[in-house]
Amino acid sequence: MLNFIEPLLELEEYNRLLAAVRDRLRPVSVIGPSESQKAHISYALCRHCGKKGVFVAFNEMQARRLFEDFSFFLGEEVVFFPAKEIMLYDVEAKSYDTVYQRLSALNRISRGDYSFVVTSVEAVSHKLLHPGKLLRNVITVDDHGRLDPGELVRTLVVSAYERVEFVEKRGQFAVRGGIVDIFPIDADNPVRIEFFGDEIDSLRWFDVNTQRSVGHAESVRILPARELVFDDAGREAVIRAVKRDAEKAGKRNPELARKINEDMERLGESWYFPGIDRYIPYIIDEPCSLADYLGDDAIIFMDEPSRQQQRIENLLLEHEEMCKALIEKGSLLPGCTGMFFDYGSISSAVSARKPVYMNTVSADAISAKGSLQYSIPCRIIGSFRGSMDLLAENLSAWKRGKSRVLLLSGTRGRGERLRDSLSENGIDSVYMDEVSRPVLPGEVVITRGSLHKGFEYPTIGFVAISDDEIFGRDRRKPAKSRGRYQGRPISVFTDLAVGDYVVHQTHGIGQYVGLEKLTVEGVKKDYLKIRYQDGAFLYIPTNQMDLVQKYIGTEGKQPKINKLGGSDWLRTRTRVKESLRKLAEELIKLYAQRAALKGFQYSKDTVWQKQFEEQFPYEETEDQLRCIEEIKRDMESGKVMDRLLCGDVGFGKTEVALRAVFKAVMDGRQVAWLVPTTVLAQQHYNNFVERFKDFPVSVEMLSRFRSRTEQKRILKDVKAGRI
To answer: What values do phi and psi take at 549, rounded to 5?
Structure first.
């Protein structure tokens, strides 16, 4: 990938930036790069400095996108460290994939087995065990080495591996005579260890389905299965500290003390139990951060610091409110708060390492303080939306200007087809599986790869265009189906309160009684207990909660509970199906009438539309891009649009609508924007003026902030078509 970053050395501003990063005398602020350019510049700086790098994105979604970009440059040398969900309740049916990914990442980071770490500010805010405590239970098993089987089993139990009859998933182990099967949390297959006494006679990977060997293993490193691990002394210290505080709280709330003592009994018996997260402040007595796992030389990149700060403030507020509610409810000890670092602590730890701040628009207050600022002249690439003519037109201009152009294609076949299509449009290009030589001035090279966004460095004539810009977002994998039911599914039992009415797919409406632990065939699990007519109860394993949904009905009105095995529920479902059929017929008729109506057919996107969209200072989400594409398609089709754009506050609805507004204005139409409050009208007005300032678009506002004279003038201008 050196041929992808060497052109940056021709950029004077980049060389000054590189010198400052090498000196590490002061923090550095980089202004200008878009999302994928942040990955490109960060990767280049670390490679040219000969250092490892850590990129801290402003939220988890941004981190995952950037991880994919860094993976294009670095392959398996990049490590992703995700954020995790803190569970303050006992949840049996929980996926530990994120925990396993975090542990695997921490293991690689602590060993220096990485070139780049990509993470989010949420992930960095989690308090961690000291590396020595977390990784002391790592087991290294060597073929034909010596290992006490009993000590191995004990370490696995302490490390929160689940003992089962047959290994089926990560984090499990099984013992049969002199054979121990283990499924390490970071492995694709489980490993089988055959002992002869304390000597390892055989070490093999095997297939979990067929139980057949799939390969010999020279050495296997087995990581702990949880982030919270103890030794005997540590566990006893936690139990004593929690019981001491529980005794104080028990004077006011005996039920809380009883619950906590039960938890400590479980901890004393099994080392781990669901809900242990609520005792993190007791377990992590000396909190460490991700920085404690890193080497001293790693360069840290902080992405949009002001947005990071806002994200952590929101995260802490949500967590504090949840803890406060649980404490008031008597379900949590007051000492069980403080599980995250605030942004001040994060910033202080990072500042000592002289970080590189990344800002797309301008240096914010955090990154500007005491930092050297460098502006990198760069530009994002707009979408060609599958138009070979438009792509060829731009490529011709770049070739005439002696720019070096890299086109990224997801597969070899697609890349070769793209080369042929360009040839038909009069553009010569070269396909390479890997860019093994420098791209020549005026040359177009197609290679395998993927970035979320393309970019251009106009002053040095270097352009990278992604698959998405060439073909449009429809080339991405479609979103996974959400399944059959779109009501209010229950993801964890804490979504329910005792007394809530629920609906089972097969048995109908019942009432949730609570959670009950049952032993079935020697296995102890949590079950949802649901009461039906005549005192009958239904027990549902927590891992089958998708069969149950919360009842949604008229507020304050209690539904009739069904009878287990009765026919009432079947008749109800039959009636509902018939009602739905009639409703569907009415909707089909209504939409057929709407489809027959003809609306104004808008033109295809103009050059100004592209320029307007390129000025959006942030990277669009996939949902935003999908909605924009669908709305534009409707506008250009000539049919009457019938859409409702839904989304939470701050998720980008306004930008989607702004692009539709701009498209309408470009065809000489007028647009009215109705909002619920005067303050919101002013905010939107300011936003519109800012976004449209570079285009001949007149924006005005009608509200009580305008005088009667101004309102009359505005209405007159609207009628005359001047607005």
So the answer is: -130, 155
